[in-house]
């Protein structure tokens, strides 16, 4: 068993030292804000922080002060110490990923009341002082040795922050007409009706009318406000929905209870489909509680093993979507297993080529970097530990995955292990397409429809 032990006044000598090393993580800032109530946007809002004098999120000043208190209360003098006075001078900010070494040194002892004075200093990983000051404490007289108490794990999460932002952004535009293709099970029908109630879509329910009404009766919902278009089967529903998108009757599609391949076969048909000059691709929009911004993952649903040429369209589709979602210059991390370019991994060669293509204006609107391993793409701490200097590392808005398998695994792991909310949209066609899954929550369906609405609204504004 580990123990915590103090140094009594009699044991302490002038010149004695103690230290502590901590690395600042995003959750440290969030926890300190939750505990103190200090929600200054300089600490919590990356967009606001860009405009301040430090140009990035910084730690609360007293986070470093709390570390000094930790050393005093647990090491020198340790348990039984009474804090009397503390002065602090803040020399420079502490930013995410900085590793801070706290050192205290005994400078004086006063016998008549057992007071001890100490110099205190916090230094970052570059050897630069971020904070210094002096402390005065009453040192304990009695020896204390106690088992070290294991702290409970704490997780700071806001599972729906980005979801709420999407819904708020979709409040201004009028709802769009959307073809709901073969909504013949409860999930697809109820999802469409919830989106209609949220004023996101005006649904056209395309499928066998008898089946649609049977589902409605079983779920006790009223279909009288909605238009049902009766067709014989799912293939006919997909064919008609695509035709309605081509002639402008609807501005988006939503998959119901038919297989994705059946719908997408009609979408990509060369003569009658919805192809454009762009490669069609899919984007997962992930609201990850432990990540400070919306994370777009592409492509994890359409393109199985895309070529370099296809990745150009895939990443451009994602950048354009991010800009519609008000991410001014999205940061794109091109993922691989390593950070160095090697001929043994095609994904690293593609990453290098894509970055150079962005430099030459063949990909526009975003900042690209790669190859980057997943940890370096999403963690400032991991990137700094590996010495990676990049505007993208640790700040990624978009993850471009090497292939569908990698993307699907990342998205599903974030959803089921990191408690993330996921929405999804198909891009590169004439209209946005919502691909739903039977496992999708109502929030997922609403968020996906909100994205489709914002895309359609953006296209209308550009056309005007």
Which helices and strands, and how do they pair?
Layout: E1 3-5, E2 17-23, H1 26-36, H2 41-44, H3 46-49, H4 61-74, E3 82-90, E4 99-110, E5 115-123, E6 129-138, E7 145-147, H5 161-169, E8 176-181, H6 186-197, E9 201-207, H7 209-219, E10 227-230, H8 234-246, E11 252-255, H9 260-267, E12 281-287, E13 295-298, H10 308-324, E14 331-335, H11 346-359, E15 367-372, H12 374-378, H13 380-385, E16 398-400, H14 404-417, E17 421-427, E18 433-434, H15 442-463
Parallel strand pairs: 8-9, 8-11, 9-10, 11-18, 13-16, 14-15, 14-16
Antiparallel strand pairs: 1-7, 2-4, 3-6, 4-5, 5-6, 12-13, 12-17
Helix pairs in contact: 5-15, 6-15, 8-9
CATH architecture of the largest domain: 3-Layer(aba) Sandwich
Low-confidence blocks of residues? none
The neighbouring-strand order within the major sheet is 15-14-16-13-12-17
State the distance separating the first and last CA atoms: 71 Å
**DSSP helix fraction:** 25-40%
Largest sheet: 6 strands, mixed
What is the strand content?
A: 15-25%
> What fold name stands as the CATH topology of the largest domain?
Isopropylmalate Dehydrogenase
Mind telling me the CATH superfamily name of the largest domain?
Answer: Isopropylmalate Dehydrogenase
Q: What CATH first level of the largest domain would be assigned?
A: Alpha Beta
Mean pLDDT: 93
Structural class: alpha/beta
Number of domain modules: 2
How many strand elements?
18
């Amino acid at each position: 068993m580990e123990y915590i032990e103090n140094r009594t006044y009699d044991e302490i000598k002038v010149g004695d030292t103690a230290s502590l090393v901590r690395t600042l993580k995003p959750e440290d800032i969030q926890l300190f804000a939750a505990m103190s109530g200090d929600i200054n946007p300089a600490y919590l809002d990356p967009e606001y922080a860009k405009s301040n004098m430090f140009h990035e999120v910084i730690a609360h000043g007293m986070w470093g002060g709390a570390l000094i208190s930790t050393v005093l209360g647990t090491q020198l003098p340790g348990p039984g110490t009474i804090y009397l006075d503390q002065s602090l001078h803040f020399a420079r900010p502490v930013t995410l990923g900085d590793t801070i070494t706290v050192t205290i040194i005994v400078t004086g002892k006063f016998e008549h009341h057992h007071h001890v004075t100490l110099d205190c200093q916090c230094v970052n990983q570059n050897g630069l002082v971020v904070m210094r000051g002096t402390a005065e404490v009453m040192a304990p007289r009695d020896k204390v040795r106690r088992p070290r108490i294991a702290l409970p794990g704490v997780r700071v999460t806001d599972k729906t922050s980005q979801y709420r932002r999407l819904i708020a952004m979709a409040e201004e535009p009028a709802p769009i007409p959307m073809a709901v293709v073969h909504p013949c099970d409860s999930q697809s029908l109820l999802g469409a009706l919830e989106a209609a109630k949220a004023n996101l879509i005006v649904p056209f329910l395309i499928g066998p009318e008898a089946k649609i009404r049977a589902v409605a009766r079983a779920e006790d919902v009223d279909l009288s406000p909605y238009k049902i278009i009766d067709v014989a089967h799912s293939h006919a529903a997909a064919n008609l929905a695509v035709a309605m998108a081509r002639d402008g009757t609807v501005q988006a599609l939503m998959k119901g209870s038919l297989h994705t391949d059946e719908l997408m076969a009609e979408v990509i048909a060369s003569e009658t489909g919805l192809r454009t000059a762009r490669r069609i691709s899919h984007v997962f929009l992930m609201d990850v509680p432990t990540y400070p911004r919306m994370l777009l993952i592409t492509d994890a649903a359409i393109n199985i093993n895309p070529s370099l040429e296809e990745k150009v369209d895939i990443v451009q589709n994602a950048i354009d979507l991010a800009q519609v979602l008000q991410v001014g210059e999205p940061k794109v991390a091109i993922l691989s297993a390593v950070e160095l370019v090697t001929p043994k991994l095609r994904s690293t060669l593609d990453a290098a080529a894509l970055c150079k293509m962005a430099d030459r204006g063949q990909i526009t609107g975003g900042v690209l970097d790669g190859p980057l391993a997943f940890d370096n793409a999403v963690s400032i701490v991991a990137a700094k530990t590996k010495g990676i200097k990049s505007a993208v590392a640790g700040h990624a808005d978009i993850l471009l995955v090497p292939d569908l398998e990698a993307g699907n695994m990342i998205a599903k792991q974030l959803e089921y292990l990191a408690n993330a909310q996921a929405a999804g949209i198909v891009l590169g066609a004439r209209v946005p397409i919502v691909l739903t899954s039977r496992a999708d929550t109502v929030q997922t369906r609403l968020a996906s429809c909100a994205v489709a609405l914002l895309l359609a609204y953006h296209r209308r504004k550009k056309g005007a």
